[in-house]
Amino acid sequence: MKTAFLFLLAGIVTFAGCGYHTAGHSTQLPASLRTIAVPMFINQTPTYGIEQLLTRDVVRELIARSKYRVSNDAGESSDAILKGTIISAQSSPLTYDEQSGRISSAIVTVAMKISLTDHKGRILFYNPNYTFRQQYQVSREVKSFFEEETPALQRMSQDFSRTLVSDMLEAF
Predict the structure, then answer these.
(1) How would you write 37-104 as a 3-class SS string?
(2) Which H helix or E strand runs over 156?
(3) 8 Å CB contact between 135 and 152
(4) Of 89, 109, 83, which is closest to residue 46 (Cα–Cα)?
(5) What is the largest CA-CA distance in the chain?
(6) What's the CA gap between 54 and 51, in Å, rounded?
(7) Contacts 24+ apart (CB under 8 A), 91-94
(8) What are 97-120's pLDDT values in tens digits?
(9) Strand 42-43 and strand 80-96: pairing?
(10) Per-residue pLDDT tens over the stretch 54-90
(11) Contacts of 164 (CB under 8 A, 6+ apart)
(12) Structural domains for the chain
């Protein structure tokens, strides 16, 4: 009985200092950072409105998951500026219906680069290679046709926003 207690105690002591921490509680951003400006992302693609969707979702995620005040003004009142550029956005067929030869599912792929810099130009966070994908089904019947690409872009935008904010806060 005493031996089992000693093993249990040794296990607790060993794992108490293992270096793990709860997600969302560790940040590599400067402690002096209070306000992040998020101007509208730059859209270098022909996909209309995708910059509005991505910027909106990133702002929502920052407000919901961080202690920072978020603004769209990149003036002197903000401590850092989060800039995003959408490099590419495309939809591609993924699977085909054997009988009709039509597309049955497609995938939307968006590539972006993101940087967070302070007013001195020091890079706090940078990732030039975010790529996100979202699969969607293509309707087979013309009568019930519903364009699924826009909802797929919305789901992809939410995934991207969650990942970006986690990456910034946890410095992965």
Answers:
(1) ECCCCEECCCCCCHHHHHHHHHHHHHHHHCCCEEECCCCCCCCEEEEEEEEEEEEEEEEECCCCCCEE
(2) helix 149-170
(3) yes
(4) 89
(5) 74
(6) 5
(7) 91/149, 94/135
(8) 777 777 778 888 999 999 999 988
(9) parallel
(10) 999 999 999 999 999 998 877 768 899 999 999 999 8
(11) 58, 61, 114, 127, 130
(12) 39-170 (3.30.160.150)
Residue 1 has pLDDT above 90, yes or no: no
Q: Are 135 and 118 in contact (CB under 8 A)?
A: no
Nearest to 164 by CA among 91, 96, 110, 106: 110
- Say which amino acid occupies 85: T
